[in-house]
Each structure stands twice: as structure tokens, then as C-alpha cells.
Amino acid sequence: MAAAKRGKTQSSSREVRLIPLLITLAVGAVIWFLPTPPGVEKQAWHLLAIFVATIVGLIWKPLPMGSVAILAIMATVLTRTLSINEALSGFQNSTIWLIVIAFFISRGFIKTGLGTRIAYLFVKKFGKKTLGLSYSLLASDLLLAPAMPSNTARAGGIIFPIIRSLSEAFGSRPGDGTERKIGAFLTKVAFQGDLVTSAMFMTAMAANPLAASLAEDLLKTEISWTDWASAAAVPGLLSLILIPLVLYKLYPPEIKETEGAADLASQKLKALGPLKRSEKSMIAVFLLILFLWIFGERGVPVLGEIGATTTAFVGLSALLLTGVLTWSDIKRETSAWDTLVWFSALVMMATYLDKLGLIAWFSDVMKDSVSGLPWALGLILLAVVYFYSHYFFASATAHVSAMYSAFLAVIVAAGAPGMLAALILAYFSNLFGCITHYGSGPAPVFFGSGYITQGRWWSLGLVMSALHLVIWFGVGGLWWKVLGLW
Could you read off the pLDDT of 285-299 as tens digits, one per residue? Predict the structure, then answer.
């Protein structure tokens, strides 16, 4: 009987996966057999069919993302749409390797306990009031963000456990009517802040390098790590300052004073003990990486110019040489290897869609929608559409893969400066996760805690989205003018 029950469960599991798989294949087949539009090569149209099917697969997830990517690569070759060398060309992309190595580096923060120590140090210093406590959590996230490309690991693996510990220490637990004491406020602030820190650095969220790579293919201009960070600095910091204040007014915690938080942090730090050798090595390597990311592309004495990906290799090598990480740690970092596979497939297809002229064709078709408008107004309208279309996506990566290149091409065709448009869409590719409880990796972690209802989550998310648009178009626009982006 038990065996029959297990068999029924396994069969049900296969059926649940089979339906999304059939839908994914059906979408690709429909596009494949549609008449090829005038001005579009059949090869480009067939690649679009495979690409769209891949995006549907990433959204519906009939198989893990890496498996979907492998099937997409196979399809491009078996259908003679691309050669095997072309299909595997994405694995040569240096930007992809940057984000993969950043995953390895982030493992050092978790393995050594340095990430947790940093967060508790901020709590101990600034945790006497609930508002100050929320800022300490954001400061911790901001400090970790440049070297942790998984915002799910950063926010869900380091920040959220601290929030849960603090909330329960003050008697705030989900499901018993005490959520509003402190837990709900800290949960919402930390989640919203994590999306901002993810937008501020190219290496702070997995899809950021994908956006940079797509922009580079379209604009033929590289977005450096420094370009990204400097343009995001002012609107990003302002967002981090205002988010706790706005939520404190709209969704205030019942507990305003948190004297016990500093004591709890002290206890946790005492349990961690003195700074370990591995943590000291991690700090040294982190500072080296930041230095080279900021100044390496301008040239370093003796060594000359050092690119962002080379810097990542330097940092990983240092962690291996100092023993902070072992090769076994590298092999076990499955999220990094998974990212390498599906990023490579997506970048490969997006690159050849551009080379085969499909992006240019789409730009010519769509630019009529904003023709006659000033480029600034066209940019704002299209960027807002791009932002709120995220209601239909459960993955930032899928959204970027499906829509980033197309929207960037149309905005540039309307006359907007390319670098400005590329960065705005890239920043929005993080910020748009604020609106729902399913639109970004950290969202299910924070929402799933049970501190905030879905209705409240969505309503506050809508307010936060408006705040982001005002800050990043308003103050950000002025800052980008100073930087010469427009």
C-alpha cells in the first residue's frame, strides 16, 4: 500500500512537470511554424521560437533552469539553427564567469561566519531603536552586496535569520497576533532594501551581468563595474535612507525602542568568539577585490589594466591559497555551476538574435509607438511599462532575458542615450521585484515567514514602486546629468 502511495505521488509529480513542459514546447512550436515576418531571416525566427520557449520554461519550470538551458542548446543545434560552436559560445563570455566566481567568493562570507558577524556588529552599534535597527540591517546588506551575487543567499541566508532571531526575542511571532510588534516592519524593510542594494552593484544580483552583457552586445559599449556603481550610488543611497522612514510611517512597528537588540547581538558575537584567521583572510581578500574593481580598469602600477573578471579570478585564487575556500567548496557551490549553464544559454541566444537582425527588426517595428515623443518622455514611458510588467514574472532573470534587449533597442531607437537607457533598465531589473511576493528570489523567503499578509505586501510594494520611480528618475536623473550620461 505504501509502495502504491509512493508510486501515485511520483506519477503526480511527473504529471505536474509534464504539463508545463508540453506548454513550453507548444509555445515554441507555434512561433516556429508561424509565417516569418517580412525582413526577418528564417534562421532568426527559428532562434526566436527556441528563445521564447526557453523563457517560458524558465517561468513555468517544468525542469530545473539548468536542464531547460541544456535542452535549448540542444534544440539550436539539432534544428540546424546554430552550429555547435555557436551554441556553446556563451560559455566563453567573461561577464558570465564574473558572476560565477562572485558566487564562490560569497561562499567565503558564509563559511567563515564573517557575514553574520558584520550584521550583528551593526545591530550592536545601531540597534537601540527599531528604526536604527532597520538601518543596521540595510547597512549590513549594503556592505555584503558587492561580493554576493545571490541576493537570495545574502538576504535570506544572512539577514533574515537575524531578523527572525531579533523578532522572537521581542515577542513578535507570525500567526499569533504579534507580527506588528517588530517582525513585520523589519521583514518589509530588509526585503525592500535588499532590492536596492542588488541594483547598486553589478555583482550584487545574478541577472545584473546578463543585463550588462546584453547592453554591450546592443550598444557595442562596455558597462564597467565602476560605471554601474557610480551611477547607482546617489539614488541608491537615498532609497536606502527613505525606505525605512516611509515604512515607519505607513506600517509602523508597535515596539519603538529595542534596547535588548544590542544585548542580543553582543551575546551572538560572544558566541562567535574572536575574529578567526579565516575571517581576517576573507576581509583582506574582500578589500583587495573592491580596490581592483574600483581602480583596476584605470590601470594598476606594474600590472596595468585589470578587468572585473580578472579581479574575480584574483580574489578566488587568493581564497584558495589562504585556505578560506577549498576545491570541495567550489564543487559544492551548485548555484554557481547552475548559473554558468543557463546564463551561457541565454546570453548565446540573445547575442545571435542581435547578430541575425531580429532585435533591429523589432526596434524598427516598435519605435513607431514612441515616434514624435521627446526621447526623455519615451524613455520614461517604456521604462515604467518594463517595470510594472514584472507582475507577470516570477523571476528577474526571465524578465531580463525576455524583455531587456527589446526595450533597450526601442528606447535607443527613440533617441535616448544608450548608456543611460541601459543603466535605468538594469536598475529597474532589480527594483521591480518590490511589487509582489513572488517576483524575486528573496521574496518567498521573507513573505513565507508569515509576518505580512499578501494584501499588505502588495499594497506596500506598490507604494515602494512609486517611491523608486520618483527617486531614480528624479534625483537619479539629476545625478546622471552630472555624470554626463545625458
Answer: 988 887 887 777 666
How many structural domains is the chain composed of? 1
| Domain around 264 | 93-277+357-486
Cross-strand bridge partners of residue 300 = 304
What nine digits make up the cell of 310? 580578472
How many Å apart are CA 288 and CA 295, to the nearest integer? 10
Q: Do 225 and 201 form a contact (C-beta atoms < 8 A)?
A: yes
Confidence (pTM)? 0.74
Segment 188-193 shows an average pLDDT of: 95
Q: How many CB atoms lie within 10 A of CB 421?
A: 28
Task: Note whether residue 47 is domain-resident.
Answer: no
How far is the CA of 339 from the CAs of 60, 162, 193, 344, 363, in angstroms? 18, 27, 24, 8, 29
Locate all alpha helices (DSSP H) within 145-179, ordered by sequence: 151, 160-169
**CA dist 268 to 116, 135, 163, 430, 451, Å?**
9, 19, 13, 32, 23
Residue 2 lies in a domain: no
Band (pLDDT 50/70/90 cuts) for residue 2 is very low
